[in-house]
Amino acid sequence: MGELHVFQPVNPEEIETGPYKFVGEKILITAADGSRVNTMCAKWGGVGYIWDKRVTFIFARKGRYTSELITASGEYSISFMNQEKYRGTLKYLQMVSGRNEDKIANSRLNVNYYDGIPFIDEAREIITCKVLYQREFDEGALIDDEIRDKFYISGDNHILFIGEVKNILLR
Fold this sequence. Notes:
This protein is an alpha+beta fold. The chain has 5 helices and 9 strands; from the N terminus they run αββββαβααβββαβ.
């Protein structure tokens, strides 16, 4: 028998560090299709490695304007904002649809582009991505009924987008 090791349990929140920490932070997901550009506020996502590629995974409801633009363009960016400085802006972006108004201009943010992918210029870090996979959630595949009842009762399911990391831009 080999040497036994002693492991100590660790709270995942205590070791999740770095600029790409998604838990508790609102991120801005931005996409464009020709002359149309929009951003949305989100809290769900992450970074990982699959298919021999560094990837991000994000979730956007299928009814969101940004989902439509990501699907059309096959690209998106994730902008990490100063949560304190832009608290009101993030709240506004979460409440308003870009279908009905130019919410980026109305929030006094600026769009910039890197390799043709739009991002929010005021961000502290940006990840630009090319979509590799997208799939609408199948609520019937959820094992936990509580999740379905809490997040999917309206039928406006999320779309999972997995995007290859093309660039990471730091200030």
